[in-house]
Amino acid sequence: TSQYVNVVVAGKQPNPVWLSMDEAVRHHNPEISAADLSPDGRTLASASGDHTVRLWDIADPANPKPLGEPLIHGGGTVYVLAFSPDGRTLAAPNDDHSVTLWNVSQMEPSS
Questions:
Q1: Pick from 25, 85, 15: which is nearest to 52 by CA?
Q2: What does the alpha-carbon distance between residue 54 and residue 35 come to, in Å, rounded to a whole number?
Q3: Pairing of β 32-37 and β 17-20
């Protein structure tokens, strides 16, 4: 049986998103250090100790699907993720005092 991690973004989503640990391990380190939900509620961003940020299509919260390849950030651990109000940019401040910005408006489902 699979184990699941419950990802809840406080104040942003009415229902929890359950990521299978199998999915998390396959796509990045399962120790999720930060998460944020896009303004339209269809994309979840998760950060991990492996210096990657993943985007997940959560249009169907019971069946999240990874979007694109992992986003690699400069260094340090990401403890906060933030989508811009229009959902096109994702910011990841790192504990090394840098901030990485990505244009995430063109992310496609992973194969």
A1: 25
A2: 9
A3: unpaired
Are 45 and 53 spatial neighbours (Cβ–Cβ below 8 Å)? yes
Name the band, by pLDDT with cuts 50, 70 and 90, for residue 87.
Answer: very high
Q: Is the pTM of this model over 0.85?
A: no
Strand, helix or coil for residue 101: strand
CA distances from 37 to 20, 61, 72, 75, 80 (A): 18, 12, 19, 22, 12
Residue 6: other Cβ atoms inside 10 A: 8
Please report which helix (H) or strand (E) contains residue 25, including its range: helix 21-27
- Give the whole-angstrom CA distance, residue 83 versus residue 26: 24
Q: Which residues contact 111 (CB under 8 A, 6 or more apart)?
A: none
Q: Within 13 Å, how many C-alpha atoms sit on residue 16's CB side? A: 8
